[in-house]
Amino acid sequence: MNIKTLEIADKKLSVTAEFKPVMHLSGKTIFRYEVLAKIYNASDRWLPVEQSFDILARETIQAISDFLFETVCELLKMKEGITVSFKLPAQLMNDMAYLASLYQQCGDHHVAPQRIEIEVGEWLTDTPQMHRQAFLQQARTYGFMLSLEDFGTRKESADSLRMFRFDTIKLARTLVCGIAASPAKLSTLHNLIDKVIPAGTHVICEGVERSSDLALLSRYSHIGIEGYMFSRPLTFSQLRLLEDF
């Protein structure tokens, strides 16, 4: 179910789906999974996804995205109570027809879009405001949750966050990792959570991999955390064992 082979200029790429658990800081319970693509070439060499997406043709990127979304829908059909975060590639952002096709897949699989969170990146700030606002509004109209990743890597505006009304803000790994050794990082993180991110928005800290950093996040019992300290991404088989289905 979770392996796809793509032909690109007579060369083969194998793509598999993995699932990164997102934990509640209080209780350390899993409340969401993030689906990830893992790409290998014909020599079984692993290729970094972000670098691969920079050089792959749009058709190939869409094929990988389609495969991941299909995997998410199949998973949600098998297990009630799970929600999954799905990262939309930058190359497909603002493509209304593609967004409509994702919504159609939910209908074909009888899966509620409300169980899927579409994650967009910081490149959103480089897109004309009218286009990005219309795209995100349409995604919300379809019922999808919305998430912004890598937050905190540039000057942020509370007003823009309120305008786009993200359900979840993911604080960048580069900001979170090492806060115990960097008072400046820690101060920035506190400012973003306490003053910039709108109240009621879910906050997830990426890259929590040190106990010293985790201890400083303990004041925020409501936030979510990701990182190898808790779990590496899971294969579909490992996820089935963990969730018992």
TrEMBL record:
Q: From the UniProt record, which GO molecular function terms apply? A: cyclic-guanylate-specific phosphodiesterase activity
Region forming the signal peptide: none
Query: InterPro entries, alphabetically?
Result: Cyclic-di-GMP_PDE-like, EAL_dom, EAL_sf
Fetch the CDD domains from UniProt.
Answer: EAL
Per its UniProt record, what Pfam families does this chain match? EAL
Highest taxon above the source species: Bacteria
The residues that cross the membrane are none
Domain named EAL: residues: 1-245
Protein name (database record): EAL domain, c-di-GMP-specific phosphodiesterase class I (Or its enzymatically inactive variant)
Origin organism is Kosakonia oryzae
